[in-house]
Specification:
222 residues; alpha/beta; 434 Repressor (Amino-terminal Domain); Rossmann fold; 5-stranded parallel beta sheet; 9 helices; elongated
């Protein structure tokens, strides 16, 4: 197995120069970069990922946390994220939390250990204080989920408006018997769950859509 010393000898450069190149040092000439890359290719050399992580070198890897990959919504979302990441020179590491805060912490620890450069949370089980603490180790983004009064950046759709538009569209087309299917977390007898606000926003949008039409019978939906 080739070593960094072998690469340096093949490129005709010092070990220090090759090491600086591998650590993304800005002051390496293009000529030296080409020599090092050619030597690495000829020797089939791959730098140690563990060593780079210990030195804080970027991994160009983004973690994506979802609840379950079997959910068609998350499958489509992950596909779009992976395509975009690849176009920008990043790979994606998919982690499922299976609605478990413990599994979620394991994913957060990947950021702390520098195994990933950043983390996109598409499902959240931990409270905001836990998540915000991990921002010191790298960027964290909430995607299609949210927490109340958090400093974490959020990218999501307007659940209430989207559901309202869907319901009113169906009503405008003359449909009367409309079924609404949601996750197992939404129960009429349960109080609002702060970790699943999207379900309740969609539920509110659905009700508003029905109520927008005075001629729509209140018992005509499931």
């Amino acid at each position: 197995m080739a070593t960094i010393k072998d690469v340096a000898e093949k490129a005709g450069l010092s070990v220090t120069t090759v090491s600086r190149f591998l650590n993304n040092h800005p002051y390496i000439s293009d000529d030296k970069k080409e020599k090092i890359l050619a030597a690495m290719k000829a020797l089939d050399y791959e730098p140690s990922t563990v060593a780079q992580q210990m030195r804080g070198v970027k991994t160009y890897r983004i973690g994506v946390l979802i609840s379950r990959i079997t959910n068609p919504f998350f499958a489509s979302l992950v596909d779009a994220l992976e395509v975009t990441a690849r176009k920008n020179g990043y790979s994606v590491l998919i982690v499922q939390n299976h609605d478990s805060a413990g599994e979620e912490k394991n994913c957060l620890d990947l950021l702390k250990k520098k195994i990933i450069d950043g983390l996109i949370l598409c499902a959240v089980e931990s409270n905001k204080n836990v998540l915000e603490k991990y921002q010191q180790y790298g960027p964290i983004l909430l995607c299609n989920t949210s927490l109340e009064a958090t400093s974490l950046p959020v990218v999501k759709v307007d659940d209430r408006r989207a559901t309202y538009n869907a319901v009113t569209y169906l009503i405008s087309k003359g449909y009367k018997n409309i079924a609404y299917s949601t996750g197992r977390h939404l129960r009429a007898e349960r109080p609002r769950q702060p970790q699943k606000p999207g379900l309740y926003r969609r539920h509110a949008g659905r009700k508003a859509g029905y109520q927008s039409r005075a001629d729509f019978p209140p018992d005509a939906y499931l």
